[in-house]
Design a protein that fits this description.
5 helices
Length: 164
């Protein structure tokens, strides 16, 4: 079985209009939601084998909260601008090239791509994954390259405002 985590970055701040979209930080709410969601996901799933993240400030900061909760060194996360500029295509290519010894991988990025990827990989329609939303999808295969040909089963869909 292979498990895919799709994580939308936490809520970003818009206080400084001078910043580029790439450089926008997390808002106060984002700084609150990210560690809560990271702990929630850690309790539900445990740590992934690999984490890939957009290198945009808000995604990177979110990834660092998740790494902290998973007790993973930040230098293990692969930050790449391609996960910002060309997210969906980069995620699909990365998945197809993953070593099959890896069982669980997390991707942290942006909308609309997180939402469209959740729909693509699960076969279930998602209208909008909210900020810091996480979709966990399991696949009945031992080969990552098969994920591009099949739909998985949603194990959970969590987001900050979801009540327990």
């Amino acid at each position: 079985m292979k498990t895919l985590l799709l994580i939308r970055h936490a809520k970003s701040g818009w206080e400084n209009p001078e910043l580029s979209d790439f450089d926008r930080p997390l808002s106060v709410r984002g700084l609150t939601d990210a560690p809560i969601m990271a702990d929630r996901i850690n309790k539900l799933l445990g740590k992934p084998d690999k984490i890939y993240s957009s290198s945009a400030t808000r995604a990177k900061t979110t990834a660092l909260f998740f790494a902290d909760s998973f007790r993973i060194d930040a230098d293990v996360i692969l930050f790449d601008k391609l996960f910002y500029d060309n997210y969906a295509k980069t995620v699909k290519k990365t998945i197809s090239l993953l070593d099959n010894s890896i069982n669980t991988v997390a991707f942290i990025g942006h909308n609309p791509d997180i939402t469209s990827l959740a729909t693509y990989f699960s076969g279930e329609y998602f209208e909008n994954i909210p900020t810091c939303g996480v979709v966990c999808i399991d696949f009945d295969t031992d080969n990552w390259d098969r994920l591009l040909e099949m739909n998985g089963v949603i194990r959970f869909y969590e987001y900050p405002k979801k009540s327990f």
